[in-house]
Amino acid sequence: MISTGELKRGMTIELDGELQQVLEYHHIKMGRGSAQVRIKTRGLKSGATVERTYQAGEKFRRAIVDRRPVQFLYREDAMYHFMDTESFEQIPMGADQLGDVTQYLKDGQTLEILTYSDQPIGAELPASVELTVTQTEPGFRGDTAAGGGKPATLETGLTVQVPFFVNEGDRIRVDTRSGQYLERM
Prior knowledge:
Blueprint: E1 2-3, E2 12-15, E3 18-28, E4 36-43, E5 49-55, E6 59-62, E7 66-76, E8 79-84, E9 90-94, H1 95-98, E10 110-116, E11 119-124, E12 128-136, E13 150-154, E14 159-162, E15 171-175, E16 181-184
Antiparallel strand pairs: 1-6, 2-3, 2-6, 3-4, 4-5, 7-8, 7-10, 8-9, 10-11, 12-13, 12-15, 13-14, 15-16
């Protein structure tokens, strides 16, 4: 059991029978009342983000979540197949378990699978990934990065806003947390 004073970003706790990852927390002390802690969490299975307030000193059950490095192999219907890079065991996961991660997956990509009690519950991507632009409007001379943007479809099917100078075939880096363009490679 851990108390509200021991919470940290990225920690996994059990709330209402579901695993929740702490995204942010704030310690709030009002005038005469007792201190409170406002916690924003994301459900590892559902992906839903919830913000709740608790009294300072309240205790939570800490969940031990293991991370295993895996390589994405292929997609078959709504199932995604991964290979554990250490044991070479194949791990199938459904699209509902992966959530937004599916928008950034390409063959051969490495990422981490989250497991709880030896059951896969989700996946975690690196902070950014490199993807190739497959379709976008052509850029014209005089277009600048500060002048706006245009939509571009990437090799995974994801559509992001990119600067005007980005063309088809360019490799770009995309932030996996926000889905925004970072830079051209």
